[in-house]
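Consider this record:
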Amino acid sequence: MAKLTGIDIFKLTPKKNCKECGCPTCMAFGMKVAQGALEISKCPHMAPEAIAKLSEASAPPMKTIKAGVGETEITLGGETVLYRHEKTFVNKTRYGVNVCSCMDDAVVEEVFAGIPKVDYERIGERMFAEVINVAYCEGTDAAKYVAMVERAAGMSRTLVLDVKDVEVAKAALAVCKAQKPILNGANAANYEAMNALATAEGVVLGVSAANIDELYDVTAKLEALGNKNLVLDATGASIKETYAIAVQMRRAAIKNSDRTFGYPSIVNLAKLAKGDLHLQTALASVFTLKYGSIVVMEKIDYSQALPLYGLRQNVFTDPQKPMKVAPGIYSINGGDENSVCLTTVDFALTYFVVSGELERSGVPCNLLISDAGGLSVLTAWAAGKLSSSSIAKYFAEFEIENKIKNRTLVIPGKVAVLKGDIEAKLPGWNIVVGPNEAVQLVKFLKDMNA
């Protein structure tokens, strides 16, 4: 929220002290709203004018912008803090791949062919290149560019049209406006024409400039024209300048409440580190932290994706909430009702380490995940969230007895002490103590099936 005090909010309340909002007084209500514990709408007697005023004042200092449609829709911005540990980052950085009208046809084909190759799931989240940045190089074939845009539009990704020529932009939007792309085309020379085009087509407008001062001025002029559906291209002439622009924009919006810079950003690493994929990957990690909303690279393969998406997932999670997977029965290697069962906690790291080793074993099995509050095995056991009672409760809730015919259950070796209690709670089950470390599961399972 913006820096509204409880007194500021209290002055706009009806001062009835009716308690209908759940607070004893309007002053208490104002304090709760200022802390973010209550919504302004909880007061049934607040005047519409006051609600409008407070909603505007309490909106995030960075606007939330949406681009794309349906499954390809992405949400950018909406951030309220400079540092994740202060509260949480809200909308994750999106990674994109760049194609340009200046590229040879063979290179363009290679880039397009590589986009679908990275597509996997980690902790319940799909990891893939969400954005295609289609750049138009002045003086190249406009028809080729439009054809590239049309092809990109069919790949179920959000599009960024990096084009400064208004006529070429019109032609490109004609073949993809239904996908609600970002038209990254406004600058000091053409902002009025680009604004008219973006507004008419109902798409997000990207703003770029020669330096940060010019970027601010052009953004202010677009706001004066009534357009606040913007993203700001922070890409400068050098890595140092780009980093400075990204940080200064975020600090201006969050610390100084300057909403002219309160928009999501684009960082184009294909321009900053052209031809150097290793440097682009390193810079992508930097701008995931500081503060790229969309980061564009020349390509994304698994060697880049695995560390980058892992970093992003760690950064864009609420530090006050544990990372965990949903409780349930996870079939691995084609496991069915006759396959051996193993159980562990719902802590995401534990799940992925254990499931990875189970997959590596090649042995069909069922991994039973119970609710342990997102804690690790020993922590959950110490906190009483992993016990014979919790396992028995899980078996009852998920009707394991009716779904699984195999009666062998492997428990983590670190909680071997639970074996006797679990046997008492689950009569008819053969409780086996597994290894202490997940890496030992491959040999353990193969020995069990020998």
